[in-house]
Structures are given as C-alpha cells and as structure tokens.
Design brief:
Blueprint (H helix, E strand, L loop, with lengths): L8 H8 L5 H13 L1 H19 L8 H15 L10 H25 L3 E5 L5 E4 L5 E4 L4 E6 L3 E12 L8 E4 L4 E4 L3 E6 L5 E8 L1 E6 L2 E6 L3 E5 L4 E5 L4 E4 L3 E8 H12 L2 E4 L8 E7 L3 H12 L2 E5 L2 E5 L4
Parallel strand pairs: 5-6, 16-19
Antiparallel strand pairs: 1-4, 2-3, 3-5, 4-5, 5-8, 6-7, 7-10, 8-9, 9-12, 10-11, 12-13, 14-15, 15-17, 18-19
Helix pairs in contact: 2-3, 3-5
Length: 322
C-alpha cells in the first residue's frame, strides 16, 4: 500500500482512539514509517488523546471572577498592587490567545471522543468486527451499541456471541440492562431479550465477571449463569447437552441423537430423520465449528456405524439403535 504524503488529523485521532478499521490502521502505520517527523506527529496526537481522556468534565465558570483574578495578578506582577484595565491591542491579543487555546482543547476533545456505533440484525444472523478486533455474531432481532474508548463499552438487547480481543488495559463491558458482564479476553454468549424474564450468560472460553446489583459471579469456560428480572436473583445454571455458539459453532455433550438432529434441522434448514427409534438413545459428544451439514452427518454416521442417505435437503441416518 502506498502511504499518503499527508494524512488527515481525524484519521490519526481515530487511530489513537482505537476506532480505525484495518485499512485505516494500515494507512496510518505506512505513513508513520515514511519519516521521523510523521512518527513524532503521531506521538503528539497520542499525548493529546491521553490528556483529553484524563481531563475532568468542564465545570461552569464564573467569567467575571476569573477575569478579576487575571487583572489582579497582572497588577501585582507590575508592582502596582491594584487592578488596572487592559486597553487596545494588548487586550485583543489576550482574547485571541485565549480563544485559540480554548478552541484547540475543545476541538481535540470532540475529535478524539469515541464514537457510538450501532448495529441491528433483522431476520438473519449478522457478523461484526469491532475496531479492537473483537468479533460478534448478533442473533436475529438483536441490537447493539459499541463505544471503543478507554473502556470498550457495549449495550445489548437480544442475543449475541462475543469473541473478545484481549486487552488488559481496556476492559470489555457488556450492559444487558439488569446485568453487566465484564471480560478481558474470552468467548461467551449473552441473551437479554426485553420480553423474557431471564437473562443468560454462557462462557465458551476464558473468564468473565457477571454483575447484577450487589450480586456477582465469576464464570469460567463451560459455566453458565442466569438472572431472573422478576425475582432479582442471579444464580449459576447447568449447561445443556446441546449448545450453539454464534452462528454455526455446535457443541454436544452426551446429547441424545434426536436432540442433535433437531439442532441441525433448525440451523441448516434441512430435514434430518432417524430411521429407527432406537437411534434416539445414542448420545453424541463433539464440537463442530461451522462445518458443512454433510460433514457433520458424516461424522455422526461414522461414529455410530450408520448409513447416511441424502435426497435433496432430506437426510436419513439408518442403522441399529444404541
């Protein structure tokens, strides 16, 4: 990629704020590599970002009192011990300098403030990638707002699967209404529908902290929690034998074969039949990461010594029961 000779300030601001996408990051890094002055310019922008992020909210200012203090200080420095008015050009220069400084500070804070990105999934799953590299799969009907600042802040309604990019200095926090989930780097699912009484959190890998009011739980890989909005109760929950992570990551833990067939039908929009009722007693322990339906059914057939028969979108597993 050919780097530009000059680069917009707002692109540098997006880069240091962690909001730039992969293409924008590559452009900035190529520009920085061109010269020492470019690298120094980026470092200057980083310092501005750090100062603005750490600045306290601006309080209301008593302008008259502030101006009185300025006049008094000028008079004292001149050895007069009294307040004197400023006239002519000197007064105008002070006003101009103050306006420039205030304008630079306010513009810097506005440019570097993390933006809110909004996403929604209609009738299909939607796959997202945030500026920090974290991946999200929104389930149908879910909405999400993301702010990638010093804290990676997410607001979720509905269900979503998160594969979070680890960053120990920038916690990843999911606000699900009555429930808050904080992680550093992990994969998990949050289901928080407005019309449902239960909010569920399932952890595929890593470690998360779940907070509901004064109650909290720490969950590790394979653990689940649920919160009842009507009872205001947060508790651990057993993992089901069949789980779906994101779009097509399927996990089965001693799941009956008829349950497996039902999950495959729902996700892949096909028909999966068990030729004999005894096959329903067979249990499957396996995980499939976005595998084609033929590959999954082929593994099942090989595992239990079955014959796989296909007619269009209809699949039949034939063989003896377990």
């Amino acid at each position: 990629m050919n780097a530009p000779t000059h680069i917009p300030s707002d692109l540098l601001a997006s880069y240091v704020a962690g909001e730039a996408d992969a293409t924008q990051r590559a452009a900035v890094e190529a520009w920085v590599a061109q010269s020492r002055s470019n690298a120094e310019e980026l470092e200057r922008m980083r310092r501005i970002w750090s100062q603005c992020a750490e600045a306290m909210p601006v309080a209301d200012v008593d302008e008259q009192a502030a101006w009185d203090r300025v006049q008094q200080r000028i008079a004292e420095e001149e050895g007069r011990g009294r307040v004197v008015p400023m006239r002519g050009v000197r007064w105008q220069r002070w006003l101009a300098a103050a306006a420039v400084v205030a304008g630079v500070l306010l513009a810097g804070r506005w440019i570097l403030q993390p933006k809110t990105e909004r996403y929604a999934a209609a009738s299909e799953h939607q796959e997202l990638q945030l500026a920090d590299g974290s991946a999200i799969v929104l389930s149908p009907g879910a909405t999400l707002e993301a702010r990638m600042g010093r804290e990676r802040s997410i607001k979720l309604k509905g269900e979503a699967y998160f594969a979070v990019q680890r960053d120990e200095e920038r916690p990843f926090v999911v606000d699900a209404g009555d429930l808050e989930v904080t992680v550093l780097g992990t994969a998990f699912t949050v289901a928080a529908f407005d019309t449902a009484d239960l909010i569920e959190v399932r952890v595929r890998s890593g470690r998360v902290r779940v907070l509901a009011g004064v109650d909290s739980l720490v969950l590790t890989a394979g653990e689940h929690a649920r919160y009842s909005k009507s009872r205001h109760m947060l508790e651990r929950a057993p993992a089901p034998p069949a789980e779906v992570w994101g779009w097509r990551i399927l996990h089965f833990d001693s799941a009956p074969l008829d349950m497996v067939a039902g999950q495959l039908e729902r996700i892949y929009k096909v028909r999966v039949q068990l030729k004999h009722s005894g096959l329903a007693r067979c249990t499957l322990t396996a995980e499939f990461d976005d595998e084609p339906i033929e590959a999954i059914l082929g593994v099942i057939a090989d595992t239990f010594g079955l014959q796989l028969i296909r007619e269009g979108n209809n699949y039949t597993l034939d063989g003896e029961g377990c």
